Amino acid sequence: MRRTKILATVGPATDRADRLARLLESGTDAFRLNVSHGSDEEHAATLRRLHEVSRKARKEVALVVDVQGPKLRIGEIAGGAVRLARGDRWTLDQDPALGSGYRTFVEIPSFERAARRGDPVLLGDGDVQLRVESATPTAIETRVVSGGVVSSHAGIFLPRAHLRTAAFGAKDRADAALALKEGFDYLALSFVRNEADVLVARHWLDEQAGGREVGIIAKIERAEALGAIDGILRTADGIMVARGDLGIEVPLERLALEQKMLVRKANAAGRFSIVATQMLRSMLTSPRPTRAEATDVANAVLDGADAVMLSEESAIGQYPFEAVVWLDRIARATEARFDPKPWRDLVRPQQKGGSELPVARAAVDLAENVHARAIVTPTHSGRTARLIAALRPTCPVLALSSSESVRRRLALVRAVQSFPAAAHSDLQSLRTRSLELHGVEGLAPAGPIVLTAGYPVEGRPTNLVTVVEDDRARSRGRRFRRRRFRPRTRNVQQQQ
């Protein structure tokens, strides 16, 4: 059973029921919908399709809606893209007409505050670079320093600008409100700066979600978020290391170090982490990844990331299914050499007190001592399963929950697989349900199961760890040993 989860972005290349089903068959655990592109009608139809495909596959799949945030984007360009050459002049203005090789539209709160002569302007992932020559109240005149292809709605980054923008603005709220009508599991919040940005979105969701629980993934794309990461982890359910924009904000030579720090801190706080952007970018046009990409994915797994994400590879690439298969292959091969022990002493959730963490540690230790096939944990909110997973056990974590929403959200947590369970269960019924999971695909062929529970179960926090053995498997093993080591005689054969 693969531990690291795969999050695939849905786009024109995959937004059909048969293709989404094939993504699941290839190994996808969660879907991401980027609502920065497309219409409201298209987004609603995609969400309905995702629900339908997941139900047909009988798989708990997390649905992530990624809102644009305060990212600046250029407008529509005639033909979809334009190639800019070094030395070209290019104007950024307020004219909504189609862009060209001379100008394009961009919506900026204040052109004069946004740029001064000599300031850099970066487009897309920073591959195309401009330099400001002048700025007026209605336009910014630039000169191309490093050329390349610029597509419609590409992101534009002004590193020296000081613009006051909301992390969860009007467009984000409108997109999230539309998604709430169709149902989703996580809001991916773009360009988070600090804990306050997450709290704004959290309060809005609490008011608008109508009692449904929607998690928040804080996308770490700004340099200032690195210094505020502890506060962000207090309020977000997980983080996404969004290396595209983060790689523009921080020196490129430090990007790998920041990734490792973010994943380590998320795991220590009992939150999940996603490593994203250009994981297998060459697979936009190639059926195989490069050696560097394969190494990058493996390093994310060794860093302890809960999930790796495909962006344009699965949204517009020519080989979306092959990309998922390669992520699966690389993750499985790498996990065989992952050493979880250095991670365990680091786990210190920010919520103090309670018995959950000591019980989680006891469950993981016991599972390793008895060579358990799995750890089974009933959970109402998913917290116990996340804590156990944060300790990186060597066996899978099987979460039991009566809440479909909880089961879907756990699809992004490393090593956790979720199953339905009764809302109210006593210890004996939990033991029986654990035995029913002995045949789950991917479990070791033999060994007991470690079960956690709240005693006396009803309404109690997790405070008990026990071993559940399959008596039938044990008796079969005894019969096998008798047949193997005892000499056979005709009488014995006749008796059998």
Could you walk me through the main structural features you see in this protein, from its secondary elements to its overall organization?
This protein is α/β, with parallel strands linked by helices and 496 residues long. It has three domains: 5-70 and 166-335, Alpha-Beta Barrel (TIM Barrel); 72-157, Beta Barrel (M1 Pyruvate Kinase, Domain 3), CATH 2.40.33.10; 342-474, Pyruvate kinase, C-terminal domain (Pyruvate Kinase, Chain: A, domain 1, 3-Layer(aba) Sandwich), CATH 3.40.1380.20. The chain has 19 helices and 22 strands. Helix 10 (291-303) packs across helix 12. The longest helix is centred in the first third of the chain and has 18 residues, at 40-57. The chain is elongated. Mean pLDDT is 89; it is low at 475-496.
Structure in a nutshell:
By secondary structure, the chain is of the alpha/beta class.
List keywords for this structure.
496 residues, 3 domains, alpha/beta, eight-stranded parallel beta barrel, TIM Barrel, M1 Pyruvate Kinase, Domain 3
User: According to CATH, what is the topology of the largest domain?
Assistant: TIM Barrel
Tally of individual domains: 3
Q: What is the CATH superfamily label of the largest domain?
A: Phosphoenolpyruvate-binding domains
CATH-derived architecture of the largest domain? Alpha-Beta Barrel
Can you tell me the overall shape?
elongated
Report on the biggest sheet: 8 strands, parallel, barrel
Poorly predicted spans? 475-496
CATH class of the largest domain: Alpha Beta
The order of strands across the largest sheet is 1-2-3-13-14-15-16-17
Distance between the termini: 38 Å
Instruction: Assign a percent range to the helix content.
Output: 25-40%
Structural class: alpha/beta
The count of strands amounts to 22
Mean pLDDT: 89
Strand content: 15-25%
Question: Could you tell me the radius of gyration in angstroms?
Answer: 25 Å
Q: What is the number of helices?
A: 19
